[in-house]
TrEMBL record, chain A:
The gene is sufD. InterPro entries: Fe-S_cluster_assembly_SufBD, SUF_FeS_clus_asmbl_SufBD_core, SUF_FeS_clus_asmbl_SufBD_sf, SUF_FeS_clus_asmbl_SufD. This is Fe-S cluster assembly protein SufD. It holds the Pfam family SUFBD_core. Residues 169-394 form the SUF system FeS cluster assembly SufBD core domain. Signal peptide: none annotated. GO terms for biological process: iron-sulfur cluster assembly. SUPFAM superfamilies: Stabilizer of iron transporter SufD.
UniProtKB/TrEMBL annotation, chain B:
It comes from the Bacteria. GO terms for biological process: iron-sulfur cluster assembly. Belongs to the iron-sulfur cluster assembly SufBD family. This is Fe-S cluster assembly protein SufB. InterPro entries: Fe-S_cluster_assembly_SufBD (IPR055346), SUF_FeS_clus_asmbl_SufB (IPR010231), SUF_FeS_clus_asmbl_SufBD_core (IPR000825), SUF_FeS_clus_asmbl_SufBD_sf (IPR037284), SufBD_N (IPR045595). It comes from Pseudohoeflea suaedae. Residues 148-210 form the SUF system FeS cluster assembly SufBD N-terminal domain. It holds the Pfam family SUFBD_core. Signal peptide: none annotated.
Amino acid sequence: MNMQAKIQRTPAEQGLMDAFDALVSELPGDSAVTARRDRLMADFGDKGLPSRRIEAWHYTDLRTLLRAVPDHLPGETADEIDPVLAGSHVLPLIGGRYVEPREIEGLKVASFRDALSGGTATESLAPLREDDVIGRLNGAFVMDGYTLTLAAGSAPEKIMELQSVQNGGQAHGRFRLEAEAGSRATFLERHAGGEASGLTSSVSEIDLAEGVELVWIIVQERGLEDTHLAQLRAKLAADAKLTVYVINMGGKLVRQEVDVMVEGEGAHFDLRSINLLAGQSHTDLTLTLGHVVPNTTSEEIVRNVVLDRARGAFQGQIRVAREAQKTDAQMSCNSLLLSDDGEFDAKPELEIFADDVVCAHGATVDDLDPVHLFYLAARGVPEKIARALLIKGFVEELLDELDDEALSDALRERVENWLDAHV
Amino acid sequence: MPAVQETIDQVRSIDVDQYKYGFETMIETDKAPKGLSEDIIRFISAKKDEPEWMLEWRLAAYERWLTMEEPDWARVEYPKIDFNDIYYYAAPKGTSGPKTIDEVDPELLATYEKLGIPLREQEILAGVQQSKIAVDAVFDSVSVVTTFKKELAAAGVIFMSISEAIREYPELVKKYLGSVVPQSDNYYATLNSAVFTDGSFVFVPKGVRCPMELSTYFRINEKNTGQFERTLIIAEEGAYVSYLEGCTAPQRDENQLHAAVVELVALDDAEIKYSTVQNWFPGDKEGKGGIYNFVTKRGDCRGDRSKISWTQVETGSAITWKYPSCILRGDESQGEFYSIAVSNGYQQIDSGTKMIHLGKNTSSRIISKGISAGNSNNTYRGQVSAHRKAANARNFTQCDSLLIGDRCGAHTVPYIEAKNASAQFEHEATTSKISEDQLFYCLARGIPEEEAIALIVNGFVKDVIQQLPMEFAVEAQKLIGISLEGSVG
């Protein structure tokens, strides 16, 4: 099989290999980083892009879907854009490049480029697993990003918006956050694109020390021709609480991975995801969640709206290790499939080795409930508006859970704009 | 509830040895030489007196098989199988095919009696059994006897071994064989297509409701022998048939391969109910020996308003790899899958179903209960998909897992694929251990722990047991008791 893959390299695979050759001399990093990059690319050369035969990529056959890659250089430089919530601290990554350090109380900010040259980033360039293509490509290509440290006990009031803006070309960025004990903050990781076709990869690594309470919101609004491959890696120490929001409403070929390790007792993880899919978009949300110590909990709720010829996928794997007694993990994935040309695939997985646990998952796929529509119709609400109302209710429910009302309103507005434009 | 009491009694009556079907019958057999080659396939075909087309069909499958790779996606681990170290044909001496009961070796009859399967019709009639069941008994590679054939024939039902059917009803076999599970379907199904030795053939003509339950009892006796049976059931328009399948094997240290293919075809308004109690030897306490059960079972709801229902109780086998599926092709067709999979010791189970919705207004229901104990791993893997044109496809899936002890694993891997806006799919899964409250309640009332567990487990699997024909329900409950014995403490 490997032999075959080598012989029949796809144009996209070849394009990525060529891009690496063209870029390698400009990529930042000390000798260890350079050696690691070479090895990652050599592995990529061997393994290539994953096909549906690779279980983790069952619903996103990247080998077939990624037909070509754009030029290796970022396209025309896009500018910093207004943050989702006015008044947020903006940390922009424009065309894959760190812009300038900003002073934010309680937060130490440095460029990831410096970490690459300074020898502190080598280890994190390793992929998570054999089949971790996003980690592999990002590790080989990463140019810049942010290294952030949230000081112990600090609680910045404003939201930090990490902004990756990209119009065409390629960019590979990375965000690293170390949240020291007892800190609290809200981060918004935003990916915006333009009209030109682009390829971006993004890896965010967040490390929560004891008692940290963190909200991490991913808003993906790439352009209609963009390919976006992203990964969030999170580790939770004892009593840490992490809430991740993933809101997908852009891009042509999108894969967002969320990999969480709940490593400290008393820790809690929440995932809320809204996936709005229209046109020809292919969007895949893949969660791998490990409970490895006793007494931890997690809850995941994923809501999807599929229109037109879009295709969506959710894979969610919860692993409960032998030692992780008293784990409570609940996952649900609900999809509104509103078009006969659309498709939604769900694979919620449980892998359980401990006996004293409560784990459950639920998955539904359905059209709007005719009873609900009838209820509204009987009260004189025209069908079009009734449908829109029901769809909004279905997804916006998740935003109501955010403590920050202003942020919740700002996100709701974006979601509604999308729905108004597409439904 | 008397049935529950029965389970408790059963658990109590069992000694150290958990597998009561582990005896071996000393009987002389005809065997083909070990190994797999074109010659062996020709040998099997000749031995069965098959027509030329059948041999060609087998050889085509073999050729295909040589190019295929063993699948590795299931969550099971086992050393590589040496396909040349297996006997592909073993038959009790003197039985080239089914005969009248008087010609059957008494040793064989005794074996089946020991297994609780009477083969003499008068005994069945005189016996305590309340309803008649026609049995096809398959011993290693051949069917030794089929009971009640005459009575069935009077109703128009054909029930015989597949080897016989190939000779007597070649047109029917030719029409349907491989039409649900094609030769090239998967590694083990293709192997089966090349070397299958026997199995049952059932044909229920238009409008006939089969007057009794049909049953096949599979027994692997011979050492180093693989069993490759092939079952084909056809229910014509408006027909109904209920079919039961049971299996056991002697206790041995080495692993044995069982790779079967079952094909069901239901035409307009037909209904097939297929129930299995799978109790192959699961291996000993250290995980040594046991059957590798790699089976392809698929039903095709070809006609409108047809229905296929799978019910399985899986307690045996060292490794189970089995996904009884329904292709819901006809409009308004229905598929059902009820399963209890119990794993103990070092057993590995990767089982589930596929419901492929193709026709309009089709519906399916999946209830799966997995129970893991000891050092076993038990995986539910299921796929539900709605084709673009499958308007109003409806599925409900519930899969629950129960863990007993902290060295086992329970896994759930559902694939839910909707390509149609009017599809309505619901899936729920839970994993938990036996509720301490329930256990405490029983203990406080003086019920010993093991009995209490059997009681709670029986409650847990009740939904599935209810789907089994009466005769099987009792046996299944007994089996669950046996399989869980020794899992506490």
